[in-house]
Write a structure and sequence with these properties.
The protein is of the alpha/beta class. Helix content is about 40%, strand content about 10%. β17, α24 and β18 form a beta-alpha-beta unit.
Length: about 950
């Protein structure tokens, strides 16, 4: 048979790489569920009233090779210059052993949030190291496992200060010398919390009646304010003090904890994470032990397993938004785990001496540079500094700036007459000499001035660090590459990620993160660009972002995209902010009621609370749908004050609700807006659109639907799509404004385009799939979920289906009858799945006592069959408990997961065999994943809270 050249070029190659099953297997699954084709399945699943009447207007799919080549050509339009801009973003040297074995390793970047701690001990240890690093450097007693970025961490500190503070004032003090992007985000958050902001110099903070204060150390000018005196004066007035600081500087500076601050925060970017045009970067957040229950984000704690062995877990989860909803500390769902782990490995690899040497060298270069300028009689404005120097140049500032630019250096334009220069880990003596030349400070020798500065120091003696840090053995034993490599691998081996088996978490969409999508992330053209670099140096970035903007508008039907939110929860917040700004512009700022279905994600009510909205819960009917009658009644009751409805579609119950258009019309009829949670967008792409359905704004989890990996709990991106009337109210940026109708709007994240360096992942995915591939991915996601539901239905009740008996892209199986009959719970099933080599689906969400399964389109029929076989085998094990063959308190489910310790020795003494425990099905032997600890005692961990590194001898015990 003759094939045409077009056929042989096989432009659709990647579609078959991404979608797990080939045609024969798809046909077999369709037959098993009683559908004649994928289109037939869609007609039975997606309401006809919302189906797209046309194909998506996207380019034809590209091969992996062609897509990479095309993106490389775009990336080459970026001009990588040495950036001395600073402002919280600095060039770094990421150790290659960490680059290749963590950042570029699917064993680290495809893992999920460590809710199943027994198979996440590796990244939990890396996060515990991160917390210890932050605790040591900040001088605090407790640190969380990262936040989204420095600016949002500052906003979280403001909110926490209000929660824990006793002052009656409604005002919050902000140091005018905080980074401007931080001030921008704090302004947004304060406006919607209803806080008054008071701005002033740090030394005047105690003159004001405020509940909290935010100070920068070192500040945006590079200066080191007299924080001990300032903080002492604030504490005397009962003010909660937050210090935004720099981990690299804290290697040489007295810590915020020693100074007396209540909260320390900042970015861990300098510890080995590329600038990436703004992110992703892990923010750190530390505080006093007395505030542990008020800290935003996740905290990793030490507990014990069933054998009494030390084991790690996420502590104090009852603070989280999925449980406390609108009473949660924050709406944070995605943090920056992958980047926090990189920062912790950076600290482990360099150790305290190596880190101090890096910091001291940075400071020394800054001091030499400043002295050379002084000797040329230029005006250095700093009285003190760590790495940043501000220079008054008068009318010559522009010429000096251009001279530095021509020499390959980006400086900060502080004002028309002042330039800023910030040194970093990549800075060298050659850079100092080149910058001297640009400033007209010619004829100096670095070595000569170095010698003159024998006693010179930009750090006042009163602020010099004397306390020790990073004394734990983990920071003092892995300094050779061999040892570091083995340590990273040892931790990786403790974690189950997508490179081992499927992770079927409902609402989390754990699909393939293809290598071709990931490769551009570590290109220098994307990694080494400062977020505030001159835009003519970022033309490749802007072209790629604009291309992705066009893709997302075509897919969602929205008129505009705001790319700034750097998590799904941030996207929710940005969407509600746009809605509230819109209402206020129409003189309807009194609209403050947010309707939320009972089935919603916990982030929805938590986000509504952050926007100061009153949450009114809408009931669901017995089929899992929104109760339209209840919605009508509550919309009518709150008509004058109705701001919006937050709804997920398909619903979190895994059903395409047929009344969705009517639901949107009801809300619009009462003057409200519809916010659509994009968690389940993977079931819409190519079949329907949020804008077509009736949504006014929606966020898109690029880390779900569009293939950015979960990274063990982050990074993520949550850009929002908006209809034209809301577009002018989307977030923008004070430092580097983005073109569009939303000029002057304040920010929700630190960087203009959020975590820009991971946007190429989604760009590559869409380019390689094209309209045909994206639609087929959605269809196969529906098929895989219905296949799993059909196969499991004889063994576990499927809780919700549509009017034609179909589920959407996920299904919920009900464990409550089993628990009532014999005491086996959804937790027991989740832990037992580990023995079969699988990560558990989502437990007890959105309905307590259930398991929500989302197989995604990337899983093959063979993998689905193994998963189904495992759950059926577990059901048969449960039957033995129900029949009394195994005791209710001693069976493979109650003792799960089983470790190697369970099969060593002769004191087994259980009513089932060791083989049943660890090799329950024949194929488990071929790819056995051994949990490194037995079931973890959550209660013990919270009652005996310990959130720092455990002494090594205790691990040995």
């Amino acid at each position: 048979m003759t094939h045409s050249l077009t056929q042989l070029e096989h432009h659709e190659e990647f579609i078959g790489r991404h979608i797990g099953s080939e045609t024969a297997d798809l046909d077999a699954m369709l037959k098993d569920i009683g559908a004649s084709s994928l289109d037939d399945l869609v007609s039975q699943t997606v309401p006809a009233a919302i189906r797209l009447p046309h194909e998506l207007p996207l380019d034809a799919p590209q091969t992996e090779y062609d897509a990479l080549a095309a993106l490389k050509a775009v990336a080459s339009k970026n001009k990588v210059q040495r950036s001395f801009i600073g402002m919280g973003y600095y060039d770094v040297i990421i150790p290659k052993v960490i680059l290749r074995n963590v950042l570029e390793n699917p064993g680290w970047y495809t893992a999920y949030t460590p809710y199943q701690a027994e198979i996440a001990q590796g990244r939990l240890e890396a996060l515990l190291n991160y917390q210890q690093m932050v605790i040591d450097l900040t001088g605090m007693e407790l640190a969380n496992a990262s936040l989204l970025d420095e600016a949002t961490a500052a906003a979280e500190a403001m909110a926490m200060a209000r929660r824990v503070g006793k002052a009656k004032s409604n005002a919050f003090f902000v140091d005018v010398d905080c980074f401007p992007q931080t001030i921008d985000v704090v302004k947004t958050r304060a406006a919607f919390f209803g806080f008054e902001l008071v701005f002033g110099k740090a030394q005047d903070a105690a003159l004001h009646d405020v509940f909290g204060a935010l100070l920068q150390y070192p500040n945006q000018q590079g200066e080191l304010a007299d924080l001990p005196a300032i903080v002492s004066a604030l504490k005397a007035k009962g003010v909660i003090t937050a210090v935004a600081t720099d981990l690299m500087a804290l290697l040489l500076l007295k810590s915020p904890g020693e100074i007396g601050a209540d909260i320390a925060l900042g970015s861990a970017q300098r510890f080995g994470v590329p600038m990436g045009f703004g992110g992703p970067h892990a923010a750190f957040f530390a505080t006093r032990d007395e505030h542990k229950r008020s800290v935003p984000g996740r905290i990793i704690g030490v507990s014990i397993d069933a054998r009494g062995k030390k084991a790690l877990r996420m502590a104090l989860q009852t603070r989280e938004q999925h449980i406390r909803r609108e009473k949660a500390n924050s709406n944070i769902c995605t943090s920056q785990v992958l980047l926090a782990n990189i920062a912790s490995f950076y600290a482990v690899y360099h150790g305290p001496q190596g880190l101090k040497r890096i910091a001291t060298r940075i400071h020394r270069l800054a001091a030499i540079f400043a002295e050379g300028l002084k000797q040329t009689h230029l005006v250095v404005l700093n009285n003190s500094f760590f790495d940043t120097i501000h220079i008054e140049l008068g009318s010559h500032a522009g010429d000096v700036y251009q001279a530095a630019l021509a020499a390959g250096y980006n400086l900060r334009r502080v004002s028309p007459t002042v330039l800023g220069v910030s040194f970093d880990e990549k800075s060298s003596r050659a850079d100092v000499e080149a910058l001297w030349q640009a400033f007209g400070a010619n004829g100096h020798s670095v070595d000569t001035i170095d010698g003159l500065l024998a006693d010179g120091n930009g750090i006042p003696a009163s602020l010099g660090r004397e306390s020790a840090y990073l004394t734990h053995p983990v920071f003092n034993r892995y300094h050779t590459e061999h040892e570091m490599l083995r340590y990273i691998k040892r931790l990786e081996n403790k974690d189950l990620a997508l490179n081992h088996s499927m992770i079927s978490l409902g609402s989390c969409t754990m699909k393939l993160n293809a290598t071709s999508e990931m490769i551009p992330v570590t290109w220098s053209e994307f990694g080494d660009i400062h977020p505030f670099a001159p835009l003519d140096q970022a033309q490749g970035y802007l072209e790629m972002i604009n291309g992705l903007d066009g893709y997302l508008r075509a897919i969602t039907g929205f008129d505009a995209i705001c790319m700034q939110p750097n998590s799904g929860a941030q996207g929710e917040y940005a969407g509600l902010v746009a809605i509230q700004r819109y209402h206020a512009s129409r003189g309807e700022g009194h609209r403050n009621v947010c309707l939320i279905p009972k089935s919603a994600h916990g982030t929805n009510p938590a986000t509504a609370q952050m926007a100061s909205l009153e949450v009114v819960v809408v009931n669901c009917d017995d089929n899992g749908n929104v109760d339209v009658t209840d919605l009508k009644a509550k919309a009518e009751l709150h008509s004058k004050h109705l701001s919006c409805l937050m709804i997920t579609y398909p619903s979190t119950h895994g059903v395409f609700e047929e009344a969705i258009k009517e639901i949107c019309e009801i809300v619009h009829g009462h003057g409200g807006q519809v916010y659509m949670d994009g968690a389940n967008l993977n079931a819409q792409v190519g079949l329907t659109q949020p804008a077509l359905i009736g949504a006014d704004v929606s966020h898109m989890n690029l880390h779900k639907t569009f293939c950015i990996p979960h990274g063990g709990g982050g990074p993520g991106m949550g850009p929002i799509g908006l209809k034209a009337h809301l577009a002018p109210f989307a977030s923008n940026h004070a430092v580097q404004p983005v073109e569009g109708p939303n000029q002057g709007q304040s920010a929700v994240s630190a960087a203009p385009f959020g975590s820009a360096s991971i946007l190429p992942i989604s760009y590559m995915y869409i380019a390689m799939m094209g309209a045909k591939g994206l639609k087929m991915a959605t269809q196969v996601a529906l098929l895989n979920a219905n296949y799993v539901a059909t196969k499991l239905a004889p063994y576990f009740p499927v809780l919700y289906t549509g009017s034609k008996g179909r589920v959407a892209h996920e299904c919920i199986i009900d464990i409550r009858p089993i628990k009532a009959a014999c005491g086996i719970s959804e937790v027991d099933i989740a832990k037992r799945l580990m023995d079969y080599g699988f990560h558990a689906p989502t437990m007890s969400f959105p309905v307590a006592g259930t398991i929500m399964i989302e197989p995604t389109e990337s899983e093959s029929k063979a993998e689905l069959d193994r998963f189904i076989e495992a759950l059926i085998a577990i059901r048969q094990e449960i039957s033995k408990v129900e029949a009394g063959e195994w005791p209710a308190d001693s069976n493979p489910l109650k003792h799960a997961p089983h470790t190697q310790s369970d099969v060593i020795g002769t004191d087994w003494g259980r009513p089932y065999s060791q083989e049943t425990a660890v090799f329950p099905l024949a194929w488990v032997r071929d790819n056995k994943f051994w949990p490194s600890v037995n079931r973890i005692d959550d209660v013990y961990g919270d009652r005996n809270l310990f959130c720092a590194c455990v002494p090594m001898d205790e691990y040995a015990q």
